[in-house]
Leucine aminopeptidase
Amino acid sequence: MAPLDPHSFTDSRNPATTDISLSLYFDFPSATIHGVAFFILSLPYAGQLSFDTRSLTIHQVLSPINLSPLPFSLSSSPDPIKGTQLSISLPDDPVFNSFFIVFSTSPSSTALQWLCPPQTFNKKHPFVYTQCQSIHARSIFPCQDTPAARIRYKALLNVPRELSAVMSARHVDRRPPVSGEGHSHLLPNGFNSLWSSETRVVEEFLMNQPIPPYLFAFAVGELGSREVGPRTRVYAEAVNSVLDAAAKEFAGTEEMIRQGEKLFGEYAWERFDLLVLPPSFPYGGMENPRMVFLTPTVIKGDASGAQVVAHELAHSWTGNLITNKNNEHFWLNEGFTTYAERRIVEAVQGEDRAILNTGIGWKGLKEEVEKFKDNLEFTKLKNNQEGVDPDTIYSEVPYEKGFQFLWRIERQIGRPAFDEFIKEYIDTFKFQSIDTETFLDFLEAEIPGIEKDIDLVLWTEGTGIPPDAYEPVSDLYTKILSLANEFKLGRMPREDEVADWRGQEWELYLENLPRVLEASQVLALDERYRLSESKDYEVKVAFLQLAVLSKCRNFYGEVEKTLKEVGRMKYLRPLYRALVQGAGKEEEKILAKRVFSEARECYHPIAQGVVESILAKHI
Ligand SMILES: [Zn+2]
């Protein structure tokens, strides 16, 4: 076994899968998908082939010639991070560059959240959606689940007729199912005969652009859509108020795509559709190609949620076109994308907005580095993740330190030269998965002598924040920070000083207040500005976090309500942490445990795992 990724059983001596055809039967009552997958390898191969799975039942592995069974085995006990290794024995015959696997998912699949009707907006129909990053695709279908591998796929999704399906792939057709199509006759437990029932429909998709498995994505529910641009439609549950608000919030998307193209070259994925998910979606957005998945909390009513869209759009170049080889080089995805996001925001919304965004990131980076003070490995851009679950060490470091590194290079060589460099970088490595060394070799070749001006080793392998990182400056940014400083001396900002503040200004202000205030100060701030009732979750959560850290119990009811209505980890992490971290928090710990036990079912499995690990560490 020669591993190439600390988070995968993929053997580097095995040929890679190039194409997969999936036939998936969605059984909502049992929260299970029954599937047949046909795999094509890059080369004919004889011997042991190693795949990743997690909580899958493997019914059969079959020959492509005569459907005879091929021997396979599963590792006896699952690895807590990687899951279960599937080993397939392919016979010594040149035709074996392909095979079938018949499998079923489990209701505990870590990629899938199955929502029952009361957990959706419309309360009428069930809903299921995926989140495969970092290492969860393997809980939907067996695969070489490493970003070092890229696959094309076809998929037939067999779903109840009253629902529809979307994927991060080209939609080919919606039509009645055909008995036996896509080898669905191989499906287990009688689902083969249910495939062509008249209560079902097949949604057919094709993904011709090769993607790493973590970008595999679908959602099934009662969906509606609105056109917002020549290559953009917004999808959400078929509730007019949600669709209208989303269409309004994201009306400027085409302008952002054009800005992205100006900076980074042609948009390679044809469509840029958006899917607004139910509130349990664990991230702000997920850059699934052709269709970005979004939390409904980005709909703020003032188009400021577009910043998350700018980030996911920027991934179309950095992350999706050029992908980190494994999670130890995650900064190549997120640092570049954070840089690109700010360039798009700067072009579309102006420099002041981009600087606020950078300033919030700077504060976040300093706090993350402080948080990792006992585990400095994860303050490095390139780090060692052997035996480490990527979900539990997820932080702003790859985003913000990665951003700072690229910004440092920009300041050194000037923006025009850096823009040329980025275009060249994207053109050279598109549709490839690379590591930090490949980036550095390219940088040194393109910009000779750069290593003399910037300590590249310190930036990529050193801990903490390098001395030549840079806090942004602008009048607005400086003004907000000085107001936050004045609060420490007892002065609250006047109404006229905050009259044109939007969410980001408040977020920056709150983040720069002392972490612990007098309860009376927290109450006074809320009395004047009603921050606990803000419709903008960034503001509301920043305020509630401050209230909990200051033990201002008047707001615990609002904290509980917030933890029960959204499942975005950006809000769950700080609120649960504020409740349980530190001494003398007995009442808060009891509250956290009770709220989690009541809200758990509403969270995506990835968020459940993250909250569990926070509670386990402190309770
Ligand atoms: Zn990102």
Remarks:
- The chain has a mean pLDDT of 95.
- The two ends are 39 Å apart (CA to CA).
- Residues 311, 315, 334, 337 surround zinc ion (CB under 6 Å).
